[in-house]
Design a protein that fits this description.
The protein is of the alpha/beta class. It has two domains: 138 residues, Rossmann fold; 84 residues, Four Helix Bundle (Hemerythrin (Met), subunit A). 47% of the residues lie in helices and 12% in strands. The chain is built from ten helices and six strands, in the order βααααααββααβαββα. Strands 3-2-1-4-5-6 form a six-stranded parallel β-sheet, with helices on both faces. The structure holds magnesium ion. Magnesium ion binds next to loops.
């Protein structure tokens, strides 16, 4: 009998390279603000707006795992400081929607969709992300039976909450699950602490050496099915 039933996947830097996506989304976000709230962009450069967002989090730490609400509320405050008063919340929400739509414009790593499609025939697939990418806006989303964000459980990996959510949804035990992700702490340590197996994705140009805790790693999506099979029969 096959031991592994559940595969959990991180998203950013595991299914796609995240840096260009975020940089482009930030650019589109700022351009939208320059067009729709020029008094804000006269007062805040992209860098100082980011610094304001970080300072806002230091004052309101409860937004730490609510990254969408954090961006909306900190922007609302920056708009108020720029003189937008009553319109601030509305402008902030629209600008956030523009950011979020741009943030979904991802390019999968080569072979990702083929491999995910094949794996979905034999395993339950669930995505677990600390970010706000929405897998259901991409065609690859149809292969996943559930997708959870840190915002859903108000806790980011390596905290157990997202991993537990995947176990609860699938009805699997940790020893029946492999988590696949790029981050040594958030993905590998987090999953291993609960008794999952863990495979590290080393796919970005600046990927560090795989974590010693990782059960295996891969540098090309075509390597992954064999690595899963090997762990599954171990
Ligand atoms: Mg990641």
């Amino acid at each position: 009998m096959k031991r592994i039933k559940l595969l959990c996947f991180d998203l950013d830097d595991t299914l796609w390279l995240s840096k260009p996506v975020i940089l482009r989304a930030e650019e589109i976000f700022y351009t939208y603000l320059a067009d729709n709230a020029p008094a804000l962009t006269e007062q805040f450069s992209p860098e100082s707006l980011r610094a304001h967002r970080l300072a806002f989090l230091a004052r309101y730490p409860h937004f730490k795992h609510q990254i969408s609400q954090w961006r909306i509320h900190s922007l609302t405050e920056a708009l108020e400081l720029s003189g937008y008063q009553d319109q601030s919340a509305n402008i902030a929400k629209r600008a956030f929607d523009v950011f979020l739509a741009a943030r979904q414009q991802i390019s999968l790593f080569p072979y990702t969709e083929d491999v995910i499609s094949t794996l979905s025939e034999n395993y339950t697939l669930i995505s677990l992300t600390n970010g706000n990418a929405d897998l259901q806006q991409h065609s690859i989303g149809r292969y996943f039976s559930a997708s959870y964000q840190a915002e859903d459980v108000n806790a980011a990996k390596p905290d157990a909450a997202l991993f537990l959510k995947a176990l609860e949804h699938s009805g699997c035990k940790p020893e029946e699950a492999i988590h696949i992700g790029d981050h040594a702490i958030d993905d590998i340590s987090g999953a291993k602490a609960l008794g999952f197996l863990a495979i590290q994705a080393c796919l970005t140009p600046d990927s560090p050496e795989p974590a010693t805790l990782a059960d295996d790693h891969f540098r090309d999506w075509r390597e992954l099915p064999d690595k899963i099979r090997q762990l599954s029969s171990r």
